[in-house]
Amino acid sequence: MAPGSPYTLKWGIMATGGIAETFCKDLLCNPEIRGAHDVRHEIVAVASSSNSKRAEEFLQKIDGAFDAKTYGSYPELVVDPNVDIIYVATPHSHHFQNTMLALEAGKHVLCEKAFTVTTAQARKLVETAKAKNLFLMEAVWTRYFPLSIKIRELITSGEIGTVFRTIGDLSINANTDDAKALTFADSHRMVNPELAGGATLDLGVYPLTWVFQTLYHLQPEQDKEAPTVIASSNKYTTGADDNTAIICSFPGHNSIGIASTTMRADTDPELQFPAVRIQGSGGEIQVFFPTYRPLKYRVVKKNGEAQTFDCPIPGDPARKGWGHGMFWEADECARCLRDGKLESATLPWKESIVIMETMEEALKQGGITYPELITTDVYDPKSPLNTGNQ
Ligand SMILES: NC(=O)C1=CN([C@@H]2O[C@H](COP(=O)(O)OP(=O)(O)OC[C@H]3O[C@@H](n4cnc5c(N)ncnc54)[C@H](OP(=O)(O)O)[C@@H]3O)[C@@H](O)[C@H]2O)C=CC1
Ligand SMILES: O=C1OC[C@@H](O)[C@H](O)[C@H]1O
Question: Where in the numbering of this chain does the Gfo/Idh/MocA-like oxidoreductase N-terminal domain appear (predicted)?
Fold first, then answer.
């Protein structure tokens, strides 16, 4: 890298679904637009598990990276010598095997949320990344928003006093005219147990992100405590959780986190009331929907004084104004790799594991189970989850 020139991170994209498209469009935005002068991104390869034509079509959809290599299988992608980091954008069910596939091939990984299906899988990924000296991060993009960074700073500087409670929700009204059925087909990743579907792993991870980044992350290392968890779920007809409520107690700090999620009601149909409330002795910070992609927060002091702050996401005029907010987590990957870090300080491995433990415990209490193929923590390069036969 020439002195003063931005560090370039070369991405290999594993899967060609909805979020891969959104993420890649963000990678194609000019970093200068968001004030990032020190890093840049290149999409050098894309793989579909079904066929290479799908990967070629993907490049048309993202309208860029036309020189990228296209593959019809994940194993081919991970051995591409030009790829620095793999973005794993498959369903939850596949994250453990797919991330292991990439790590075993010596690639750094950014893996979509939820990190894994079980805590044992998350631990195995971390152990493998550590042993192989590779970077690994769970793609909880919300944490890298300037809004999240600002809120963490406000809490640290004592703007709302000591934080005792965080209440967060991410819910969607996916009802249909049939009282039992949701809008998703039973095979859809949102509700299909074979793809580790369900409200907790897909949506609940975001309110938990707010609980953890306010009540856990900001504690000094020696004071960080895993919460005790009390949870309750209702099952959808497929067996995945339709709705779940999770109470996290941090007794050492006398603080409580409450995370809820349902596919039966919207968090806030009017976009008027807070989706997240971070409550301290001196007031509260309110964050508005979308819980995962927040654009506005409000600080309400104990004396009733209140101020609202808008945090729009910058769009790239050269990309039809596109900008979704996933580029900030991509920049974090680039900076970590440039600086020789294996994990992100904003979402350390230990914290991903504690959050995974919390969700696993909640699902256990809710009686939600997933099949052996997707819960095993034994890596199998020939697993259908890697070879695409599943
Ligand atoms: N950060 C965020 O805001 C969001 C994150 N997500 C996360 O991203 C991941 C993917 O979600 P999303 O992109 O919406 O899902 P999609 O169903 O749109 O795409 C998933 C892709 O995974 C690949 N895949 C491989 N095997 C299977 C299989 N058996 N069934 C279905 N797909 C398979 C397919 O790509 P191919 O055929 O190319 O192999 C498919 O297109 C999930 O972990 C989800 O939680 C999702 C939405 C938003
Ligand atoms: O990560 C996500 O954020 C947005 C939601 O709509 C989506 O289901 C989920 O996967």
Answer: 11-137
